[in-house]
What does this fold into?
Amino acid sequence: MVLPKPVYESIPYAYLVAGVLTFLLIESAGRYLPAVFFVAAALMIFQLRHSYRQNQAEQDEAKARRMRKLARRLNTD
It folds into this structure.
């Protein structure tokens, strides 16, 4: 299932808000566990997306270097 980009990008923020609101609005000792899970999920998503995008950028740069090298080789022959 593919989500629209705005929805996909807003999910960790929604989790973060849900965690903070859970902590602030629920008057129970049990509020800590779901609040921590929501915040942890948001932070994990942020970290995973950052890591993936960093790797993609590095791969794209490596591919561009290979293409430039190939183009130089073809131009000199």
In short: The chain has a mean pLDDT of 92.
